[in-house]
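Ex. 9. Protein: Enoyl reductase (ER) domain-containing protein.
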Amino acid sequence: MKAVVCREPGVLEIVERPSPEAPAPGWVRLAVSHVGICGTDYHIFEGKHPFLEYPRVMGHEISATVLEAGDGVALTAGTPVIVNPYLSCGQCVACIKGKPNCCTNIKVLGVHTDGAFCEEISVPASNLYAAEGLSLEAAATAEFLAIGAHAVRRSMTGSGARSLVIGAGPIGLGAAIFSRIAGHDVTLLDTSAERLQMAAERFGFASGIVADEGTADAVREKTNGDGFDVVFDATGYGPSMEKAFSFVAHGGVLVLVSVVKDDIRFSDPEFHKREMMVIGSRNATRVDFEHVVASIAKGLVPVDKLITHRTALADTPRDLARWAHEKSGLIKAVIRVGG
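Predicted structure tokens for Enoyl reductase (ER) domain-containing protein:
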């Protein structure tokens, strides 16, 4: 089968690899249909991922069809599926609590082990969800949207709340969309006026704040001096995450959707006087994927406006390298592998 391999930072190649063997009991061999390109993939290509071993086949935003099922699996050949790329151990403290998304031994396809920039993969059947009512291209957006849906669910914030989403990239837009679905009054904050304009025109997020020296004043003006009931930071930038504390209303919630290597510091007096909650949000679970699938099927998620760039597997080395630095107008790029 054909696969795109990142040999080392900056080097992508199309290679021939053996197809997966017949699946073991409980596993399924899949024909990859579409794969979304994630910020993580760009970081791997650019050599910015801190814990990655090269060479690596990237790709973890996956839709596929069943080719062959191992013993004990009821799925039949030809079934369209969405792949949850977080392979969990099922035995650690997190898995026992029903939180495989933060398994202590987690392996993410395309990061810790080879992913789906290739024609076929094998995964556990428990990591597959029905792509009911979705095109296989739309199904490939479920994983990144599920991260936003999970963050919104983690916030435990009800309808009518004022929410601020910091970072208008794909993950931030996903969080904003599912914040709106949850009944929140959503404002976006980003350093790019172009991105905020795009979010307004394509997705209807008319309330936006450009991050600059006047941000704090703009937040006070938007909220009558109270701050936002819930703030989602999706920037992956430490200083932004630290500043986000000051945008939270008394009794409010800060959800850190992104992650950075560095320590995050905040003012304890400001934190305590607000009696605010700080919540980490990692990956997603089955309930989040199912919420995403149902929301897309209901027309609540404008997938056609999220997917801005398309390519084929054979053209991925050229196009991914170009899109790594040509970001204008780019929200989500999707690779068509089969289908």
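Check your answer against this statement. The chain is about 30% helix and 25% strand.
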